Amino acid sequence: MSYRLQRMPVAAPSVLFSARVLSVILALLTAAAVLALSGKDPIALGGKVLSSTFGSRFGLEDLGLLFSPLLYCGLAVAVGLRIGAWNIGAEGQFNLGAFAATGVALFVPGPAWLLVPLMALAGMAGGALWILIPTLAKAYADVSELITTLLMNFVALLLVYWVATGPWLDPSGMALATTARLSVSVPYVWGIVHWGLPLALMLAVGLAVMFAYTRWGYEVRIGGANPGAAAYAGMPVQRHLILVMLMSGAIAGLGGMMEVAGTVGRLQGGISNNYGYLGIMVAVLARAAPLGVIATAFFMAVILNGGIVLQSQGLTTHTVLAITGLILFYAAIVDEVARYKLIPTTGEVTPKGAR
Amino acid sequence: MDILAGLIQTAFLAGGVLALAALGEVLAERVGVVNLGVEGLIALGAMSAVATVVITPHPWLGFLVAMGVGLIAGMIFAVATVIIRANQVLCGLALTYMGMGLAATLGKPISGSPAPATFQDIHIPILSDLPFFGRAFFSHSLLVYLIFLVLPVALHVLIFHTRHGLNMRAVGENPAAADAAGISVMKMRFWYVSLGSALAAGAGGYLTLVFVPSWSEGVVAGRGWIAVALVIFAGFRPINAVLAGLLFGFVTALGFVGQAHNWPIAASILSMLPYLGTMALMIVPVLAWQRMRRLMAAPDSLTVPYFRDQR
Q: Using the beta-carbon criterion (under 8 Å), do A325 and B99 form an inter-chain contact?
């Protein structure tokens, strides 16, 4: 009996899950091989990363601080992917959220219980505003959101850098390139981990419920899978697209607000720390499922923390970006390969589509 | 007048990076593959060019090494997107991340220090001595003339006036028909994607050997993404792509001149101009030139992998 390969339109979910795991393992193995070739001991380095991340309470608290922004950015990208929109601009929306929240903290007087929610609203508005033009361009002029959202990142980074070194520079003269320390902050929930983390987890669950059980979520999913069919069925695809993309920006903006008001405490250039770009990987690995994002964001936080730990070993934080790219690369390949299935050929009837 | 001549000179200098990268992307997209890894390829090329001239002070060698590195990276990308036919957007993003991360990691020892050898401007008798025009158009290194004159014309002729070019375009527009006509879709896509990647990495070599003679992590600064956007704006045509690159070189030059002459605008705000300008160029033409849309349209099968048994 002989076999032949048949490409399936979609792969089975169980196969896809193992494909994802496989791509991560392959990427880590490749990274380990490169490290070994450059004369470092990958197993010892890996052990060091794990022990300094999970071995102490400080390590776990640091992990929590990385986990939170990755969750917001991962969710932001995932929400967009649900309707088929690539939000590559989470990085910029994150910055704008931080910028808007800082503006409220610096210039609006008021008690903390009022200011913090106000900052969160401002952060969400800032993020949504930053994706507004790409959204409208996609919805009404069919301009690829891939590039427009990305270009806005650079503008946002420059804007934050400019206000942090210019108009909003710390007047005390103590800091060179940051604003003054914000007068209010997001309350702590565990050590130095602030309420941004539990809120992000709740957001992930909320989104998962919305996508799975509401009419809106159903229409968004159909609109993403097959816009033509959705429009034919009378669903307002364009309205959903605009709303979902603005939501995506708002989530990233909220992440930025949490970062500046919870973790960093002041606005400075580069506050987004590539979280927006890593968020793309987080969302893709999770196949845009909000609950999956929790797992992949946690994994990414471990990798990112590992990168920080390994900085003392002569690696830069950019090494993490390279490893992220590697995971993404393998994930894309393995995804395609997973669609193929070995089918026994009987020899008599050639099934349709085979040659 | 002197300011204008300097502006034009800088426009060519700055625009060369975008023009060369955009030409590479034109090649890939004409055969139906979108390569979003340009940013990473420029980073790889920029770093390896400086690393080469640090070892041996020959700028041409540095440029060739950059292109070679791009060719290899492009072939890896092409194996994934053309042969395995994995998702092009994902692979492109992955290539960007890998390129930027790898360039930053490997280039750490040479980060920030000036390149020990760079391309020198060539002096053309009579022309270079002309008032105004001499400085604006004839005070450049050989690469600038290659990028703005030789390469776009050659590629234009190749794509639009040869049978091979017709085959190329057929592969991008309708691979099934091209396949039926006996053109190897896979071979065509594989080599033009790889070649396009080599040009993109070459743009990185140009960046660090001509324009900013030094490698650092932020030196690419989104130029790869601008180049991808310019290709769309240029209607996937090599000559338009180079002109668009020049236009953006001019926008970048405005920022420099503004800083040099102490215009009352912050440098960060001036640096936003190229990105905002690209946004405008992506959105405005779609709204304004409805009649041009067919002429400037993307290849029909762009981003669509070709499966022979599904045609």
A: yes
- A192 Cβ neighbours under 8 A, 6+ residues apart: A61, A64, A65
Q: At what angle do helices B2-30 and B163-173 cross, to 10 degrees?
A: 70
Query: Which of 34-73 (A) contact B at CB < 8 A?
Result: none
Q: pLDDT of B3-18, one tens digit each?
A: 888 899 999 999 999 9
Q: Determine the pLDDT at residue A348.
A: 54
Q: Which of A155, A267, A311 to mutate to test the interface with B (most CBs of B within 10 A)?
A: A155
Domain coordinates of chain B in residue numbers? 2-121+133-304
Q: Which of B36, B91, B278 is closest, CB to CB, to A329?
A: B91
Q: Can you give the pTM of this predicted structure?
A: 0.92
Domain-by-domain residue ranges, chain A?
41-315
User: In this predicted structure, what is the pLDDT of residue A355?
Assistant: 47
Residues B264-279 have a mean pLDDT of: 87
pLDDT, residue B291, reads 65
Closest by Cβ to B278, choosing from A151, A153, A162: A151
Asked if B290 reaches chain A (Cβ–Cβ under 8 Å), the answer is no
* Residue B71: pLDDT over 70: yes
| Series of mean pLDDT values for 10-residue runs along chain A (355 residues) | 79 82 90 84 86 88 94 97 94 97 93 93 97 94 90 94 89 80 89 94 97 94 90 92 97 97 91 92 92 94 86 76 91 88 69 51
Residue B67 near residue B45 (C-beta atoms within 8 A): yes
pLDDT, mean of residues B103-128 = 87
Rounded to whole angstroms, the Cα distance separating A102 from A80 reads: 26
Contact at CB, A321 and B100, closer than 8 angstroms: yes
Q: Which CATH class is domain B2-121+133-304?
A: mainly alpha
Kindly report the three-state secondary structure assignment for every residue of chain B.
CHHHHHHHHHHHHHHHHHHHHHHHHHHHHHCCCCCCCHHHHHHHHHHHHHHHHHHCCCHHHHHHHHHHHHHHHHHHHHHHHHHCCCCHHHHHHHHHHHHHHHHHHHCHHHCCCECCCCCCCCCCCCHHHCCCHHHHHCCCCHHHHHHHHHHHHHHHHHHHHCHHHHHHHHHHHCHHHHHHCCCCHHHHHHHHHHHHHHHHHHHHHHHHHHHCCECCCCCCCCHHHHHHHHHHHCCCCHHHHHHHHHHHHHHHHHHHHHHHCCCCCCHHHHHCHHHHHHHHHHHHHHHHCHHHCCCCCCCCCCCCCCCHHHC
Residues of chain B positioned with their CB less than 8 A from the CB of A326: 94, 98
Q: What is the CATH number of domain A41-315?
A: 1.10.3470
Neighboring chain A residues of B270 at a CB cutoff of 8 Å: none
State the best of A321, A324, A335, A352 to mutate against chain B, taking most chain B CBs within 10 Å.
Answer: A321
CA dist list (Å): B35 to A241, B64, B69, B75, B197: 25, 21, 16, 12, 8
Mutate to test the interface with A, among B36, B100, B105 (most CBs of A within 10 A): B105
Distance (Å) from the alpha carbon of B10 to chain A's nearest alpha carbon? 21
CA distance A228 to chain B (A): 18
Count A/B contacts: CB-CB distance under 8 Å: 140
Q: What is the chain A residue with the closest CA to B311?
A: A353
**pLDDT beyond 70 at B248:** yes
Enumerate the residues of chain B whose CB falls inside 8 A of the CB of residue A331: 90
User: What is the ipTM metric for this complex?
Assistant: 0.91
pLDDT tens figures, B229-246: 999 888 899 999 999 999
